[in-house]
Amino acid sequence: MTIQEIENIHRQSSQCINDAEMNDAFRHISALAGQLGRGDLNDELERLRISYTFMLKYLEQGVLDPQRDEILASIRQSLASLNDQCYIHLLDATSPEIFYTRRRELSGSVLVDLIEQYQGSLRELSLAQSAPIQQDDSHAILSRLRHAEEIETKLFNWVWSTFPLTTDDANSLKLCISGDILPVHTRCLMVAALFLGLMKFYDENKLLILLEAYTLSDEPEVQLRALVCAMLTLLAHRKRTASSKGIQARLSAMLETNDFDSDVWSIQVQLARSRNTENVKQRVRNDLIPNIMKMRPDIIDKLKDKDSQVIDLSDIEANPDWQEWLDQSGITRRIEEFNAMQIEGSDVFIATFSHLKSFPFFKTLSNWFLPFYAAQSAVVQNLGADKIGLAEIVQHAPYLCNSDKYSFCLSLGALPDSQRTMMSAQLEEQNAALNDARQSELPNDRQQRVRIINAFVQDLYRFFKLFSRRREFIPVMDEPGLDMIDCLPLAQVTRDAHVLELLGELYFKNAFYDDAIKCFIRLEGMEAATDDHVYQKIGFAYQNAGKISQALNYYKRYELLHEDDAWNIRHIASCYRALGKNEKALEYYNRAAALLPNNVSLTLTIGHVLLEENRTKEALQQYYKADLMEDAKHRAWRPIAWCSFLLSDYDKAIDYYDRIARDDTPSAQDLLNRGHVLLCQGNAQEAIATYRQCLKKMDGDCGKFRESFKGDALELRLHGISAVDQALIPDAVCSQIYNK
Questions:
Q1: Which one, out of 67, 200, 310, 387, has a CA that is 20 to 30 A from the CA of 165?
Q2: Nearest CA to 644 among 660, 614, 608, 620?
Q3: Can you name the residues that pair with 304 across neighbouring β-strands?
């Protein structure tokens, strides 16, 4: 069999098991097992076949069996595991994937031996570090540190590439992860190794260890990483976990623990935010950073004193003129925007650090999941043993995930000492300010747990998006349904009304409207959800998703309960308008205007709808009304000018277009419209001059000008401009460009 044939049969078998088409599943797996010629696998397959055959026979005979569901679930689980084992053994010798490469490298290794070797290397390292320091001992210590890390990496590779775990190996791993026989960072790596294995093949023992690690470990870093990994596994393998009694029992027990509900919610929120990471990345890379960089020369000029020395930014507060300039330039707003995204947990640094994952450090798979600690060999080597203080400063930087902290330290290694010292001082100052702010607040264990979760989800996001061989794993972070409300094993936690409401708001804020609708509709059916505004939220989400009829339905349901809600009335009107029912739209807009008589935007909108209905005189009256309102700010001038043109009041139209030119900034459209008015007045020469100003605003794009001009052909014809003149004018306008 070729690799492609093996993969196809394995995929077909998995689908048959998921669909409970067991006879077909047995047939496919028999084909795989027959290629191996292994008696143990064939014996297990035959045992399962006999159990299934007897179950069918009892069913046919009408025998009542209350455990039939459990037996079938057990057969399906065992058959799925056997399918995976056959697949793995067939690819073991030839597949170039990293999973099989590591299995071949570690084929003779035993877990307990690797653990003992690792513990021995840590003891040797500890003795070397505690001995009196001699010249060149630092090189020996670094060598011992690397040796310990090499065994640590082997241990990681063994755990993730072993399938399935035996009971003895599972028990050994439970002791390692939940106890204190290994360093915390190593226990965190073992958690990640279990998860990585689960992103290749489902192994219930590995998932149970993750769930137990959350309950049994006394280290928040280990606990929360284990829970994040377990939740993502439940999502990736939801069909196989939903029927597992062992998983259900463990989750039910976890519901009794103090932090479980809050931790699941925090994880769900951060996973939801991770779906918006690419938008945040583009916003930072294409908006915030470029705009600040464009201002950089001005910033430097502004911050120079009379001797042309650049003033320290920390002195800005001393001069209100500088602060005022920063506010006016937009820098303050952009920095505040960046800080707000940072505080709410958005992944604002991925745009900065994504290109810093090409260091050799990140070619080692386990390093993508390694908690940052200052004594890691790559950090020590890059910064130097005497710069351990700098690494410790980085370690306490609150908004960087572990992966980015390693990137930061590795990139610092290439900088001159002066720049490195400056960056160290800036980072230390920032950390100190944040710590002072925290100390002024009451101790908050929940915030610390949230920070751990956020950082680890960001680490995982980087792995699944940036690791060179990421496509060899289940892309769980790419799932469009990366939320827990459809995941049956977690339904008891994630279908809480408060959770659904907050999650729906988060999805809506980030424009995931379908997911927001799903949350709000489930919230609608809950007794705990008594807030009538849920109808508005569902309507608003439907409207933004472009599903106008559904939106209107929910707005109308809210109207039955609150008939004088102006916000709701306006949105009903906008739905009718979007559906082309302008008479109904006007009915509701006028109701809203009665409640909000001085609302400029609403008055203008009524004018726009009247104009769409060719009720130009009525529309003009609305625009005049809006122009008299306190907050109009020239917003009515353009529609007044256009309506005056449509009504052949050319002098009034010119008056308003001149006001725009004098007191506002005329757009290309304004100049085009002004040209139309002049043309209809019979002033062709000035009209063409105005059209040329419009063309200049369009960057000399004659094609764009022609399209815009042709768009008003009907209005021009109604005002007496012949088809011949309309054909000639664009050439006359563009003639100067063509003749250059």
A1: 67
A2: 620
A3: 310
User: Tokens for 215?
Assistant: 């309950």
33: its two tokens: 């097992």
Does the bond joining 597 to the residue before it have cis omega, within 30 degrees of 0?
Answer: no
3-state secondary structure of 248: helix
Closest to 641 measured CA to CA, from 688, 607, 613, 609: 607
pLDDT of residue 244 exceeding 90, the answer is no
Tokens of 710: 């042709």
| Cα gap 697→13, rounded to integer Å | 64
Q: Cis omega before residue 164 (within 30°)?
A: yes
Q: According to the model, what pLDDT value does residue 502 have?
A: 80
Three-state secondary structure string covering 382-445 = HHCHHHHHHHHHHHCCCCCCHHHHHHHHHHHCCCCHHHHHHHHHHHHHHHHHHHHHHHCCCCCH
Q: Looking only at Cα atoms, what is the longest distance across the chain?
A: 101
- Cα separation, 683 vs 408, in Å, equals 66
Q: Whole-angstrom Cα distance, residue 593 to residue 609? A: 14
Please say whether the beta carbons of 44 and 82 come within 8 A: yes
Measured distance CA(202)–CA(191) in Å, rounded: 15
Q: For residue 59, what are its two tokens?
A: 């069913």
Separation between Cα atoms, residue 653 and residue 645, nearest integer Å: 6
50-63 in b/e form (b: 16+ CB < 10 A) is eebeebeeeeeeee
Which whole number is the average pLDDT over 558-576?
A: 95
DSSP 297-353: HHHHHHTB-TTSPBPPGGGGGG-HHHHHHHHHHTHHHHHHHHHHHHHTT--TTHHHH
- The larger pLDDT score, comparing residue 345 to residue 513, is at 513
Q: Around 134, how many Cα atoms within 13 Å sit in the side-chain half-sphere?
A: 4
* Confidence check: pLDDT of 625 > 80: yes
Which residues are paired to 310 by β-bridges? 304
Query: H-type helices in 467-581, by residue range?
Result: 491-494, 497-509, 513-524, 533-544, 548-561, 566-578
Mean pLDDT of the chain: 86
Distance CA 36, CA 20 (A): 25
For residue 365 the two structure tokens come to 């798979």
d(CA 404, CA 406): 5
d(CA 605, CA 497): 37
Say which residue, 278 or 197, is predicted with more confidence: 197
Task: Provide CB contacts within 8 A for 135, sequence distance 6+.
Answer: none
Tell me the mean pLDDT in the region 489-499.
66
Q: Which amino acid is at 480?
A: P
Whether 510 and 283 have beta carbons less than 8 Å apart is answered as no
pLDDT at residue number 290: 63
* Residue pLDDT, tens place only, 392-421: 888 888 778 999 999 988 888 766 666 666
Residue for token digits 């309960």?
561
| Spatial separation of the C-alpha atoms in residues 38 and 46, rounded to whole Å | 12
